Amino acid sequence: MGEKTLTTPCCIVGGGPAGLMLGYLLARSGVAVTVLEKHRDFLRDFRGDTIHPSTLTIMHHLGLLEGLLALGHQKVTTLRGELQGKTVTMADFSRLPGRCQYMMLMPQWNFLNFLAEQAATLPGFTLLRATRGVSLRQHQGRIIGVNAEDDAGSLAITSPLVIGTDGRRSMVRTAAGLQFENFGAPRDVVWMKLSKEAGDARWASGHGGPKNNFIMLDRGEYWQCGYSIVKGSFPALQQQGLAALLQQVAAVAPVDIERLRRQITDWQQVKLLDIRIDRLTRWAAPGVLCIGDAAHAMSPIGGVGVNLAIQDAGSPLPIYWQHRWHAAWSACVSSIAYSVAASSPPGPPKGCKL
Ligand SMILES: Cc1cc2nc3c(=O)[nH]c(=O)nc-3n(C[C@H](O)[C@H](O)[C@H](O)COP(=O)(O)OP(=O)(O)OC[C@H]3O[C@@H](n4cnc5c(N)ncnc54)[C@H](O)[C@@H]3O)c2cc1C
CB under 6 Å to ligand 1: residues? Predict the structure, then answer.
């Protein structure tokens, strides 16, 4: 069977928050766009669940807030944590201006499904699931498309603009030769789920932490727990054995060791998330741009990565203006910018030099 081909005005690699929001914005403005997502669905754990007021305000401007609020979520007005035995308020959203004075907690797959559904109603939006971008296509020093793979084989995509929204291990940024600064990270996080049990407290209404490096997120039927460890120490923890890890967790978690032993019986239930913090020195090269974690991998601290990814989706718009392939494209981009920020288009992301 021969290689399939596809031509699209814009090819976005990665259907996370940045890719889906940018795909939605472009399609809404009449630009045909193809988003590649290597997974078949968005049902993956351990991705940010926090939707901050800034993102909710953007959703409001786009007319999407009511639909989003209709989905199951929790509202958090303040974030508190226990530091050195004292409870401190780390964030108080109630004092913010704008439409929503709270942070929303929602499993990220629900948020992504919602964005994908909204985008799918727009002509020109195509989401290719189970399609992995494998390499970039280049011609005379310019990126002209993506080589991808799906269940049926290989797919050669031709596009004048490729956008890398493929996260922290971005193929696009590597293949484009974009350089990054690595800022290092002192911690990693191990994640595990605990089933809810009768009599569980409402630990801080959805966000119980951080308390001595331990957080609990209320996922409705279960608790998503994160335990922060020293960077690179996971292999040593594994050598010490699961029982030793559970002892450490029990020392800082509001659940007893018996429950941990009953529910966490296998290393398969304990996942390591290595934390990276880095930033591209240039976000773009001819024919290609990276945004979201592909441009700046985020620490989970503050839970802002999803929100910066969403803001990035609007931020490159002035850069598209500079490219201005033709008048219609320019008009489309203009309308996108003004739909996100009613009075003036956002500035280009810091560090973005074209
Ligand atoms: C432990 C941890 C906890 C975090 N907690 C929070 C939090 O609570 N709140 C918060 O806001 N942020 C959190 N973050 C950060 C947040 O997850 C990211 O900043 C955010 O998801 C970035 O969005 P993105 O769209 O740029 O990339 P991603 O969310 O990484 O999405 C990239 C998408 O691209 C797809 N993809 C990758 N490669 C390819 C390819 N070659 N071809 C096709 N598709 C591809 C992936 O499957 C994925 O769907 C956390 C990060 C870590 C490490």
Answer: 13-19, 36-39, 47-50, 132-133, 165-168, 171, 189, 273, 275, 292-294, 298, 300, 303-307, 309
Q: What's the CA dihedral at 7, 11, 13, 15 to 10 degrees?
A: -110
Query: Measured in angstroms, how far is the CA atom of residue 130 from the centroid of ligand 1?
Result: 16
Give, for ligand 1, the residue of 111, 180, 293, 307 to mutate: max count of ligand atoms closer than 8 Å to Cβ: 293
- For residue 4, the one-letter residue type is K
Rounded to 10°, the helix 17-28/327-340 angle is 120
Helices and strands (H and E) in the chain: how many: 11, 21
4-80+99-181+277-340: CATH, from 3.40.50.2300, 1.10.10.10, 3.40.920.10, 3.50.50.60: 3.50.50.60
CA of 47 to the centre of ligand 1 (A): 6
User: How much is the pTM?
Assistant: 0.85
pLDDT tens digits, residue range 101-143?
999 988 899 999 999 999 999 999 999 999 999 999 999 999 9
pLDDT digits (tens, 9 = 90+) for 4-48: 999 999 999 999 999 999 999 999 888 899 999 999 999 875 667
* Structure tokens that stand for 59 in this block: 């959703």
> Ligand 1 centre from 293 Cα, in Å?
6
270 three-class SS: coil
Minimum CA distance residue for ligand 1 atom 51: 300
